[in-house]
Specification:
By secondary structure, the protein is of the alpha/beta class. It is built from 16 helices and 14 strands. Helix content is 37%, strand content 21%.
């Protein structure tokens, strides 16, 4: 337990940091207005920070204003964040802080202020503006570029652990695909793999990225493949985590074809318990997942799906994934055989959504690909096996960057 003198010194440092926020404020776009409530339990104090296009205001205590985000942590972690010794993503990944409310805003707070020594923040959440759509993007780290693409119904938050690990060697960009997360949700967009891939390539242009390693989970993996097929010269390598490759047996094809995404215009919602049940089913070992993460993810899905644009995007993308033809003219697997960038496929042995048995179709059509099955893992390896998945990706990137011989075609199991 710290001494009273130590606690007093920490409190003084925290108070000085909050007082300096207005002068370190980097500003926001017109119309922005958000309030954060920061609770530092070990010193027993709360602060409220409000940011608008006109400036930032910080005050000790809580007002009657309902905050957009509540962040809880301890004084030492908060000081480390303000001094740039730790990023918010790293603190969140290590469970040194919790967030309630809009998770995007919770992480974005750090990027709104210069560090206390005048340096730019370690990360920032910013919008990439494209014709007809806006892409919310997390950028952090320095080095070769890496793009992270989330799965259906998810957001860039599913890659927070991976972003924290990879940013030690790479400049990482985690995107909210249009229709999901904090990105725009155009009601008339097609939400096909091709459209998403064109969006990713346009975002790369806006971000000044000539070439990048592209990582995708589930639907994001299918989009990463499409980027590699369309513009192989822009892709250094592909890291495909349980990618949504084409279903060979599509029992419900006639039924799904009749489902219209326009139904998303009608107000409806998924019951919270059903969303939570689906979340837990993504993992082989739910006991290994922080229960607070389930609350955050379920809250985020409920909030996003509450909008007509979010519902249309979800239903359209799900329909397009299921209905994609595996074979025939322009079939997925015939096109997969033309994939040029070095590809690593990571499957989960207990994945109920995209079982590892799909690997045999990949081996037939793309024998040059490396395939790894993670034992005791479900559909989201970057969450359930975060450290191991990041290590696999870094090794794959390094081989591609060095231009040396890639592993021979193989499927191996990793405990």
């Amino acid at each position: 337990m710290s001494s009273p003198a130590t606690r007093a010194a920490r409190l003084a440092a925290v108070e000085a940091g909050f007082r300096s926020l207005p002068e370190r404020y980097l500003g926001v776009e017109p119309g922005f207005d958000a309030t954060w409530r920061i609770v530092l339990g070990d010193v027993g104090h709360t602060w409220e920070v409000r940011c608008t296009a006109h400036g930032a205001r910080a005050r000790k205590g809580a007002t009657s204003r309902t905050p957009d985000v509540v962040i809880g942590t301890d004084a030492a972690t908060w000081i480390a964040l303000r001094c740039g010794r730790l990023s918010g993503i790293e603190a969140f990944s290590r469970r040194l802080l919790y967030a309630r409310g809009n998770l995007d805003l919770a992480i974005a707070f750090e990027g709104l202020f210069r560090l206390e020594d005048g340096r730019r923040p370690l990360l920032r959440i910013h919008d990439v503006h494209l014709p007809g759509r806006r892409v919310s993007t997390l950028t952090m780290g320095e080095g070769p570029d890496v793009l992270l693409l989330h799965g259906l119904g998810g957001a860039k938050s599913s890659f927070f652990d991976a972003a924290a690990a990879l940013s030690r060697r790479y400049r990482v960009h985690a995107l909210d695909l249009p229709g999901f997360g904090a990105s725009a949700k155009p009601a008339t967009a097609p939400y096909t793999a091709r459209w998403f891939a064109e969006t990713v390539l346009a975002a790369m242009d806006e971000l000044g990225i000539e070439r990048a390693h592209v990582v995708g989970n589930s639907m994001g993996g299918r989009i990463a493949i499409e980027v590699g097929l369309r513009r192989p010269e822009r892709v250094a390598s592909l890291g495909l985590l349980c990618p949504a490759v084409a279903f060979v047996k599509r029992t419900y094809h006639p039924v799904v074809r009749l489902m219209r995404p326009e139904l998303g215009l009608l107000p409806h919602r998924f019951a919270r318990e059903k969303v939570a049940e689906h979340f837990w089913n993504l993992f082989a070992d739910p006991d290994g997942i922080d229960p607070s993460m389930a609350d955050v993810v379920v809250d985020e899905f409920q909030r996003i799906y509450a909008s007509p644009g979010g519902r249309i995007a979800f239903l359209s993308a799900a329909r397009n994934i299921y209905l994609e033809a595996p074979y025939g003219k322009d079939g997925f697997y015939g096109r997969l055989s033309q994939l040029e960038p070095p590809a690593l496929f990571v499957w989960g042995s207990h994945d109920r959504v995209i079982p590892p048995a799909f690997g045999r179709h990949v081996a037939r059509w793309l024998p040059s690909a490396e395939q790894i099955v993670l034992e005791g893992c479900g559909h989201v390896p970057q969450v359930e096996r975060a450290e191991q998945t990041s290590d696999l990706l870094e090794a794959h990137f390094a081989r591609a960057d060095e231009g040396g011989p890639l592993p021979l075609s193989r499927t191996q199991k990793a405990a």
